[in-house]
Write a structure and sequence with these properties.
Layout (H helix, E strand, L loop, with lengths): L2 H19 L4 H8 L3 H8 L7 H11 L10 H4 L2 H13 L3 H14 L4
Helix pairs in contact: 1-3, 2-3, 2-4
């Protein structure tokens, strides 16, 4: 895969992840950004190279800053890398922050 093609795929995956995090369909994102949902689908599959104006509309519709569309590391990290990053973050937290994080994680992912 050429580098430019890979970047288009990563951009598409990132937009899809942000859209899914909101629980939106491609149709809803298309309506919110005033872009054809079919074009949204092509962007998400890495088939289209969206213009700057299109990316601005998508970011605004998703209510994220434009640079957030280009945070590809979340889309490319494997489980071990993610666990390592989480460990690094936790290592630098205060005792109170660790307690709060534990409460949030326990609420989201109760031990069965």
């Amino acid at each position: 895969m050429k580098k430019q093609e890979n970047e288009k795929v990563l951009l598409g995956r990132r937009i899809r992840a942000l859209r899914n995090a909101k629980g939106w369909t491609q149709e809803k994102l298309g309506a919110a950004s005033e872009i054809s949902y079919k074009f949204i689908g092509e962007i998400e599959r890495g088939l289209q190279n969206p213009s700057f104006e299109t990316l601005v509309k998508i970011a605004a519709a998703l209510k994220v800053a434009l640079p957030e569309l280009f945070r590809f590391e979340e889309e490319t990290l494997d489980k071990r890398s993610i666990e390592s990053r989480i460990s690094q973050i936790v290592k630098n937290l205060s005792d109170e922050d660790i307690r709060q994080l534990h409460m949030v994680l326990s609420a989201l992912y109760p031990i069965k």
